[in-house]
Structures are given as structure tokens and as C-alpha cells.
Amino acid sequence: MSTASARLPEGRYGRSSDERADRKLKVAGAVLGAVLLALVGYFAYHYVVENKISAQVIAFDATDSAVTVHLEVHKDSGTSGYCTLRSQAADGSEVGRADFRFSGSATRIDKVVTLRTTAKGTTAELLGCHTA
Fold this sequence. Notes:
Radius of gyration: 30 Å
Distance between the termini: 88 Å
Oligomer: single chain
Structural class: alpha+beta
Helix content: 25-40%
Order of helices and strands: HEEEEEE
Shape: elongated
Number of helices: 1
Strand order of the largest sheet: 1-2-5
Number of strands: 6
Largest sheet: 3 strands, antiparallel
């Protein structure tokens, strides 16, 4: 005498509850992944497009108490903002940091600014520029 199997015949009654749950998890994961990718793309696009200011340090001259920096800024007409500069000593410690503001209708600003330092600076580094 043989006993009857408790399992249902294969493929006869549709998917099992485990297979349905796996499919729901895969769909939910794909949807969340797509949303995350869209958010990253959105923020990356706005970071690149909204940055209306670019600048560069052309030259600098260091003394014992200040660093004179020749700064060139390119911006959209009418945009106001600021650029942050810093200077470091020979041992790598920061000896000066300042924001330099600008505004107006000019699209190119060529300016020499003085960054006061607490010791002799050996660098003049542009940390970034932002709209105000």
C-alpha cells in the first residue's frame, strides 16, 4: 500500500506563494532602483547646469603675512557670488582662508586679491566658487 503525496502536481495550479513573493520583490527592487537612478541623474544634472561660475588661479605671490592671488572668474551676466581661497604652509597646515565676493554684469572678472595669512603661505588654492 502506498501513501498519497501531499504535494500538488507540478504546473497544474499556477505559481506557488514563494514564487509570487519572489516576483513581487524583483519588481519592487527594479522600481526602487529606477527611482534611485533617476534621482542621482536629476541631482547630477542640476549640479552641472546650475553651476554658473568657474574660476582659476592664474598666479600667486606669498609674503610672510599675506598671499597675493591673481584670480580669473567666468560667470553669467548679472550673477553674483563668491570664491573661496586658502593658503597652506610648507608643513601642510592651513594658514589662511577667505571668501572673495563679486557681482555685476561682466562675464569675465580678472582680479588680484590679497589673502591674509597667519604664517608664510606656500600655496594659493581655489576651493570653489558659488552663487550668492
